[in-house]
Amino acid sequence: PEVITVQELANRMAEKGVALVKVLMGMGVMATINEVLDQDTAQLVVEEFGHKPKRVLDSDVEIGISGAEDDETDLASRAPVVTVMGHVDHGKTSLLDALRKANVVSGEAGGITQHIGAYQVEVSGQKITFLDTPGHAAFTEMRARGASVTDICIVVVAADDGVMPQTKEAIAHAKAAGVPLIIAINKMDREGANPDRVRQELLQEEVVVESFSGDVQEVEISALTGLGLDNLKEQILLQAELLELKANPSRAANGVVVEAKLDKGRGSVTTTLIQKGTVKIGDIFVAGAEWGRVRALVNDKGQQVKEAGPSVPVEVLGAGGVPSAGDDFAVVSNEARAREIVDYRQEQIKKKRALAAAGPKTMEAMFTQ
Ligand code: GTP
Ligand code: MG
């Protein structure tokens, strides 16, 4: 179910219901044993207990849009998907910009800067897909789709500021997702840069970097001067090689919605990270509770493309409405199927809304009512 009661969740984790109620209270959610939780809250609770949450959408199971398992022989290597996280102002966006510029310099980009949440950079003939995490809420939604979205996490820490609350949070996200972590110690050009202090503070988060004889890679960089960026890219490729990332490019496409918006000229624009298969113009697809026929595909350089395969971020034009970030994306066999799935999901959303309206209230909501 897309919603679950406190008791049911407790049963599944083999924990006591009261323990969950306490944890919820700590999160500012006043709930009794019989109260219904939405997926996001349930996930936070599960993580709080140190378990790894796994979401199962009823509709996907019943309708089977994820399709069959891939045959080993159909798998081909794919680019690593790397999520960049970190405390506010530590230089996450600057790093992404610097990497993108490097790509422009190498003649890759067409000079059209189009901000989407995901893009590819080519390093010595190998592609790396980067995901921006523009805000906490967005990242939670991304994470909600499971660890499969990201292969590697880069946590950016400013050398002149050190480990801050969102640095800790980012590390926790990476750990919860079970993906390798790379620490980028940024702003090394700054007067007050003290990378050893960062290394020291990371110990408290149980992150032991390589130069402290640990197993977490760290790279000193400056997004401003470009110092260490080649090294960072090499480290990513090294890590990716170890992961032996593969996907079947020749099946119906599956992916995740990175962001979606309504564009005046282009209609619904669904920025999607393709995870397996290849999406093509004319394909019928479902994205969350919306469906459509692929009218056009636009890559991260603003160029129209005919298709997009595994690990490729692409803007999909043609959805009937605007899906949400974190929604799944799947190409289906025909329009009737698409309608069936979307009808089911919209029904689920309605039910969930009705339950939420009668469900647990946050402290904040209680006080502002
Ligand atoms: P949020 O998106 O708000 O979380 O911040 P961010 O992590 O994306 O930081 P952003 O890239 O916006 O950088 C914040 C400030 O730090 C900007 O003024 C940057 O110019 C500056 N900055 C980023 N990287 C470096 C660096 O390597 N050296 C120096 N000196 N300044 C930097
Ligand atoms: Mg930013």
From TrEMBL:
Keywords in alphabetical order: Cytoplasm, GTP-binding, Initiation factor, Nucleotide-binding, Protein biosynthesis
Domain Tr-type G positions: 77-246
Membership in a protein family: Belongs to the TRAFAC class translation factor GTPase superfamily. Classic translation factor GTPase family. IF-2 subfamily.
Region of interest (G-domain), residue spans: 80-228
Main location: cytoplasm
Highest taxon listed in the record's lineage: Bacteria
Record localization: Cytoplasm
Organism: Temperatibacter marinus
GO terms assigned for molecular function: GTP binding; GTPase activity; translation initiation factor activity
Identification of the protein by name: Translation initiation factor IF-2
Function according to Swiss-Prot or TrEMBL: One of the essential components for the initiation of protein synthesis. Protects formylmethionyl-tRNA from spontaneous hydrolysis and promotes its binding to the 30S ribosomal subunits. Also involved in the hydrolysis of GTP during the formation of the 70S ribosomal complex.
Residues annotated for GTP binding in this entry: 86-93, 132-136, 186-189
GO CC annotation: cytosol
